From TrEMBL, chains A, B:
<comment type="similarity">
    <text>Belongs to the RecR family.</text>
</comment>
<keyword id="KW-0479">Metal-binding</keyword>
<dbReference type="InterPro" id="IPR015967">
    <property type="entry name" value="Rcmb_RecR_Znf"/>
</dbReference>
<dbReference type="Pfam" id="PF21175">
    <property type="entry name" value="RecR_C"/>
</dbReference>
<dbReference type="InterPro" id="IPR000093">
    <property type="entry name" value="DNA_Rcmb_RecR"/>
</dbReference>
<keyword id="KW-0234">DNA repair</keyword>
<feature type="domain" description="Toprim">
    <location>
        <begin position="81"/>
        <end position="176"/>
    </location>
</feature>
<dbReference type="Pfam" id="PF02132">
    <property type="entry name" value="RecR_ZnF"/>
</dbReference>
<keyword id="KW-0862">Zinc</keyword>
<keyword id="KW-0227">DNA damage</keyword>
<feature type="zinc finger region" description="C4-type">
    <location>
        <begin position="58"/>
        <end position="73"/>
    </location>
</feature>
<dbReference type="Pfam" id="PF13662">
    <property type="entry name" value="Toprim_4"/>
</dbReference>
<comment type="function">
    <text>May play a role in DNA repair. It seems to be involved in an RecBC-independent recombinational process of DNA repair. It may act with RecF and RecO.</text>
</comment>
<dbReference type="InterPro" id="IPR034137">
    <property type="entry name" value="TOPRIM_RecR"/>
</dbReference>
<keyword id="KW-0233">DNA recombination</keyword>
<dbReference type="InterPro" id="IPR023627">
    <property type="entry name" value="Rcmb_RecR"/>
</dbReference>
<protein>
    <recommendedName>
        <fullName>Recombination protein RecR</fullName>
    </recommendedName>
</protein>
Amino acid sequence: MNFPSKLIEDAVTEISRLPGIGKKTALRLALHLLKQNEAVTEALSLALTRMREEVRYCKNCHNISDAEECSICLSHRRDKSTICVVEDIRDVLAIENTNQYQGLYHVLGGVISPIQGIGPEELNFASLLERVSKGEVAEIILALSATMEGDTTSFYLSKRLKETGVKVSTIARGIPVGGELEFTDEVTLGRSILTRINYSQE
Amino acid sequence: MNFPSKLIEDAVTEISRLPGIGKKTALRLALHLLKQNEAVTEALSLALTRMREEVRYCKNCHNISDAEECSICLSHRRDKSTICVVEDIRDVLAIENTNQYQGLYHVLGGVISPIQGIGPEELNFASLLERVSKGEVAEIILALSATMEGDTTSFYLSKRLKETGVKVSTIARGIPVGGELEFTDEVTLGRSILTRINYSQE
């Protein structure tokens, strides 16, 4: 594309560095900003810069936070004996939105992926072991994606955590609520039979 | 969504003001920026602010420009007797990318749309008449979208331009190159028959 203006070209180049945004979308966004009041662009720029410069990570759970410790770790209402291990901050938000979990979190910052060169050392794993070693934790819930990398990480974590003697569980995999049996893939369906829930025990 | 950080929340709010970007995508983009080097966010903010503050519009054709006149208007290679009227700057880029047009442009800045309260006065129409009145223009090519608003605008412009005596044409509507006849909608197909091209005259 030949841009009539270097300023536009620069803006389009920078916007299209964002994931999932190509040159055409970037141009549409740039032209949209040009049509709006200057204050809109200013507010956007400022919010981005401030976020990038000032945001901090909770020293306990690595969740995003405005202070040294995040609001979840600081809250007196949370059950400090349970830690839910997740891949990133979006997963914390997703679980928080369910209103079903009252414990603390631990954000790994990724999953083990040999292809991308991410091993356990690249993840926030040492600090998890440290939290466990303090003796206040009764259960670790692994809430990682049901992908190859997620499963590998869960397997690795469960093995390493077994040494500490803490109870380790993982979130259930099965057919999603509202999902029809015949359209569920066979691996999921197979797993849901193997890990069936015993009504008579409840 | 409950955000663990006010800074993230502000950034997500500002990003999701952009067209076609919802809260979830905005959060994904914000977290992406957090994972990148600080320089990425800085470059993005700066490019956006500079673009919004410093970009100018060509005094002749209202195309985006870094100077008082755009590079197309200033070029000695362009045919100054033809003006192609388009809705916005993206259309200029689209036509430039075809490499089929050597004339000048005139960016209307929109199309007539009574529902959105856009009449001819809101568009860069007076300046088009002024350019025509200088007597150097031989042909005006209307290249507006084939929508109701685009057609209305074309009709209005062709009527008003008729008074000036300049030749007015519009880009061809028909089946797109590569398009199959049976999948072309009937209105397009009907028009393509009515405005058929006479081979024997060529």
